[in-house]
Write a structure and sequence with these properties.
Elements lengths: L1 H43 L4 H17 L6 H33 L2 H4 L2 H28 L7
Amino acid sequence: GKSKSHTLHTWLQLLFDTALATATTTAHTLILLTHAVTLSVAINSHTNAMLLVLISNNFGEIKGHVFKKMDDAKVFTAARMDIVERVHLSVELLFVAAQRVTASGSFTMGLDAKLLKDTAMVLGSEVFVDVFKHAFISKFNGFRPRG
C-alpha cells in the first residue's frame, strides 16, 4: 500500500521535474537563438537601423537600474549578470563571424571592416552602458571605493 503509493508519487514528481526542466531549457535556448539571429540580421543588413535599435536597447537597461536603492550584494549580482550578458554577446558575435566566413568562403572576405566596426560598436556600447550604469548606481547609493 504505502510504499507503492510513495514510489508512484516519486516517479510522477521526477517526470514532472524532468518535463519542467526540459521546457525551461528549450525556452531559454530559443530565446538565445532568437537574439543571435537578430544580431546576425542587424550586422548583415546594409543599413544600420536595426543595429542602432539593438544598441539603443542597452540604454533602457540604465533606466531600469540606476534609481533603485541597492546594497552591496545587489550591485554585485548586477555586475555578475552584466558579465554573463557580455559573454553571451561575445559568443553570439563569434557565431555571426563564423557564419559570415562560411557564407563568403573566405576568412578575409567574411571578416571585413564593416563586421569588425559593427562588432566593436555593439561590444563597446555594452561596456559603455555597463560602466555608466555602475558608476551611477555607486553614486546614487553612496558607495565609496575601498582601500
